[in-house]
Amino acid sequence: MLETKLPRRDALGRLAAGLAAFALAGPACAADFPTKPVRILTPFPPGSGPETVLRLVAEKLQRRWGQPVIVENRPGANGFIAIDAFKRGATDGTDLIQLDNVHLAAYSHLFKKLPYDPARDFEPLAPLFRAYFFVTVAANSPYKTVGDILDDARAHPGQLNYGSWSVGNPVHLGTALLEAMSGTQMQHVVYKETSLLYSGVASGELKFALGTMATAGALQRAGKLKFIAITAPTRQPAFPDVPTVFESRGPEGYEISGWTSIAAPRGLPKAVTDKLHQDIQAALAEPDIRERYVTLGYDPFPTTREQFTAFIAAESAKYAEVVRRAKVSLD
Known about the structure:
By secondary structure, this protein is an alpha/beta fold. It is built from twelve helices and ten strands. Helix 1 runs parallel beside helix 10, helix 2 crosses helix 10 and helix 4 runs parallel beside helix 12.
């Protein structure tokens, strides 16, 4: 067999041309992405607040991309069913997943062994929303402030109860943070359904619970619950009369929120992940989605990808401390 050797200059020239063509191909492919239907898996059940937002965004993306965007519900098992389906799915960016703060920032501290690696399996693209919680009590509750709750908890260690829908969710961990920062000890009661949880607060079965407009707003509007504080750093424009936890005689610096995001598989070309980020942000900026956020009590949460990565790292550090202080484990 004869072997033909190119002169060194010609070989380098062809290599440079090939690299240049490859560099140009990335953005070109990204501009055309996607060229087939996209599936977005969600661990949230149909009709829930986070899932409702995702479907609105999916409709916007479908029009923008000219490709079907299918939302597939895979609720249950702490979100692990949806995550497993995502990990077995397409790796070219046409399979995406909706995740919330516990999946990306808390579960790694709660479980000794997870069926996924937050850092290796996901490329967080953009947050969909951020929701601060209200401290909810029954309409006829004697508690007027968060300080009243904490005073009662100090007087009756381990007896005052609060609720959430599982161990390790943002409402549970957010209240555990309140306990840690106030030096109190309370009793966590788990309800299977959020509707039963807030009905339990309204009836006085539970002393209080953290809740959003999406989960507790209906009972608050019906006059069965009242909001005595919000877990945000400042008062919110939609509820100017509801004080922050600190203003309500709670610990200074206390803040907790829930948030969800869309993530892609790790390892996609940067041009593709940048396009996904930009298109999701553009969808979220449309007026009808902003209007829906008002009814759901969600806040827009626009960030760059770099800012979002730093935010997730800070959230993870916060939850690590909460879990350590509260000695919470799901294993």
